[in-house]
Amino acid sequence: MWEYTEKVRDFFLHPKNIGEIENPDAVGEVGSIVCGDALKLYLKIDRGTDKITDARFQTFGCASAIASSSALTELIKGKTIDEALKVANTDIAEYLGGLPREKMHCSVMGREALEAAVANYRGEKLPEVEEGGIVCQCYGITDVKIRRVVQENNLHTAEDVTNFTKAGGGCGGCIPEIEKIIKEVWAERVVEEVAAPKKRLTNIQKIGMIQDIIEREIRPLLQSDGGDVELVDVDGNKVMVALKGVCRECVMANITAKNIEKKLKDLVSEELVVEAE
Amino acid sequence: MKVIYLDNNATTRVADEVKEAMLPYFSDLYGNPSSMHTFGGQIHRKIEVAREQVAALLNAEPEEIVFTSCGTESDNTALMSALESVPQKKHILTTRVEHPAVLNFCKTMYRKGYRITFLPVDKGGRLNLEELKSSITDDTAIVSIMYANNESGVVFPMEEITGIVKSRGVLFHTDAVQAVGKMPIDVKKLPVDMLSISGHKLHAPKGIGVLYVKRGVRFSPYLIGGHQEKGRRAGTENVASIAGLGVACELAKKHLGDEYSKVKGLRDRLERELLKCPGARINGDVANRLTNTVNISFEYVEGEAILLRLNEYNICASSGSACSSGSLEPSHVLRAMGVPFTAIHGSIRFSLSVYNTDEDIDTVLKIMPEVIKELRELSPYGREARAT
After folding, report:
1. What is the pLDDT of residues A58-74, one digit of tens each?
2. Which of A153, A171, A187, B103 is spaced 20 to 30 A from B51 at the CA atom?
3. Burial class (CB in 10 A: 0-12, 13-18, 19+), A15
4. Of A2, A220, A245, the CB nearest to B110
5. Chain B residues with CB inside 8 Å of A62's CB?
6. For a pLDDT cut of 70, what percent of chain B falls above it?
7. How does pLDDT run across A76-96, given as a tens digit for each residue?
8. Distance from C-alpha of A58 to C-alpha of B179, rounded to nearest angstrom
9. H-run or E-run covering A135
10. Treating both helix axes as pointing N-terminal to C-terminal, what angle do A158-165 and A104-122 enclose, rounded to 10 degrees?
């Protein structure tokens, strides 16, 4: 049972500003039904003054997602666009008397919907769509978003990044990468292991390492989701694998193969290419 | 406001008769059953009475009953014991839809070098028995398959499963935590080697479990210490709860007939009426299901939101949605069944008991459609929902 404040409860049970706006001046849509929460924000904006005259929302999600969306609309109504953009996700959480740490991503979703709506109003593209690579494949979270949320919310652990963005909350495969981003953001001196210049591997050593990594690192992750992978062959730098179980039909099969490749590149040799049968 | 408790697969109310049976052990009868004096020693006989009561529910022999602290301990003990009895075998065969007590145990063993097969289920939550057959190898140390699933309520065909496993001479364990007390189980007819029970799922208190171990099955204890439970489970007995569980099993045996057909009647009515909500669908094989469970999805609404709205009316249920789980992952059972994401987040499980009434169901049927309608109006997918 989550510990929600009275205000969260109240904004969930009696949300303010629900529904659509006819002929809105801006619409911001974030999240998806697959991820478990989605928010569509509608704004009416006075073109002369840039003032938000009305804000309404539709949310698919849990109690804190609905409460956060409703709080957002209350916070930005009457503000100009520039003023509204100063509303951070922490302001939404604060307005509600706080959110459980695990639910902070709901406030982040509110902030993102606002950015999306403003971009829509100004006819801009969202920066995250253009830049940034996907870090968390499960929830489609980019490094740009992680960096921003880490900075804005002063986050220092991967667990908190999951709480605030959901990244790393699925298979957990990207957690090392998230930890790396956190380190970079805080400019902590990453004591790079003074890697001795990589020795050239013999073919047998290489195959042995690949086998070992697939067995120890990759298969447990896949199996826990009902999938599996088998090493079929290694031909030079080409690693052929067969995806099994649910991985085979999975729409993410390509990503799975890419993830395996990434792991093998990191741990064995930059030159490896993985092909799934 | 009266609590309408429809979450009996999570835990159940302690029966009044059970509570009464436990009370003396908190006051007058506080002796240690291992003591030499009569004051303590007499307690030992009480434990044996409870052992007989538990055995009777399963048609087992009393000496086949080992008291543990919970279902999880029973599951862990069974698997660990099996692995130790055949140390040369390194394969465990189980399913994707097991309780974490089995699932996570297997994952831990995987890291210790065991090979694990997690059998998939189909859309109805059913196992493919051909796949079970072909997955058993000479290296298989144990097959562990739950009797009935806690989330979908789907009951696995134990006769066929045990037939397949025993024909290969492999040890078989079943986590029967959700089945015992809800359906008749006869271990004389069903060749299971080990079977787990949890007290609080059948109106006994939390903190008591049972592992049935068939006579002749090699067993090594999980907790090491004193000679309690004939050396099979060390630790001073939880006497009050053991006595309570004995009575609970006796009650369950009595209720298996008439009372349970009443529960089924209530469940069926609840299900039939809720299905009239637009975009509602049942998860799981309705033909082979616990009579007290219904897992129903309301598309395009989120489960935690439903639960918290119901909570306002003191209606207790549970959900497989990600947000209600404490992690970000939706139910592993519903995912294994391939329930689409539009439905998985809006899944609600109602699980009934003999204490539920017609009025309980009336109230839920009055409130639930309103809750769904309101949340859909809030949802950006309201249009999709209306189209279903």
Report:
1. 999 999 999 999 999 99
2. B103
3. buried
4. A220
5. 302-305, 308, 321, 323-324
6. 97
7. 999 999 999 999 999 999 999
8. 41
9. strand A134-136
10. 60
Q: Where in chain A is the domain with CATH 3.30.300.130?
A: 203-276
Instruction: Check if B381 contacts A (Cβ < 8 Å).
Output: yes
Q: Are strands B65-68 and B209-213 parallel, antiparallel or unpaired?
A: antiparallel
For residue B335, give the CATH number of its domain: 3.90.1150.10
Residues 6 or more apart whose CB falls under 8 angstroms from that of B315 comprise B4, B6, B363, B364, B367
B14, B43, B56, B33: which is closest to B244 by C-alpha? B14
Name the CATH topology of A6-122: Sufe protein. Chain: A (3.90.1010)
CATH level 3 topology of A203-276:
GMP Synthetase; Chain A, domain 3 (3.30.300)
Instruction: Provide the 8-state DSSP code for A101.
Output: G
Could you tell me the two tokens for B38?
């009569």
DSSP secondary structure, B211-261, as one string = EEE-TT-----SS-SS-GGGGTS-S---HHHHHHHHHHHHHHHHHTTHHHH
Per DSSP, B209 falls in state E
Domain at A131-185: CATH code:
1.10.10.1100
Which pLDDT tens digits describe chain A residue by residue (277 residues)?
A: 778 999 999 999 999 999 999 999 999 999 888 778 899 999 999 999 999 999 999 999 999 999 999 999 999 999 999 999 999 999 999 999 999 988 999 999 999 999 999 999 998 876 555 467 888 887 888 888 898 889 888 898 988 888 888 888 877 888 889 999 998 888 754 444 444 445 567 788 888 888 888 887 788 777 777 778 888 888 888 888 888 776 666 656 667 788 888 888 887 888 888 888 7
Q: How far apart are CA B271 and CA B365, in angstroms?
A: 10
Where in the sequence is the domain holding B293, given as residue range(s)?
A: 257-387
- Rg, chain B, Cα only: 22
Question: Which ipTM score applies to this complex?
Answer: 0.86
CB-based contacts of A237: which residues, under 8 Å, 6+ apart? A269, A271, A272, A273
Nearest Cα residue to B138 out of B94, B174, B98, B88? B88
Residue A60 is nearest to which of B96, B330, B379, comparing CB atoms? B379
How many domains does chain B contain in total? 2
| Distance (Å, whole) CA B166 – CA B160 | 10
Last-in-domain residue among B255, B288, B321: B255
Average pLDDT over residues B229-233: 96
Residues in CB range of B73: below 8 A, 6 or more apart = B209, B211, B222
Contact A246, A221 (CB under 8 A): no
Q: Which residues of A touch B381 (CB under 8 A)?
A: 33, 38, 60
Same domain membership, residue B200 and residue B112: yes
Per-residue pLDDT at A191: 44
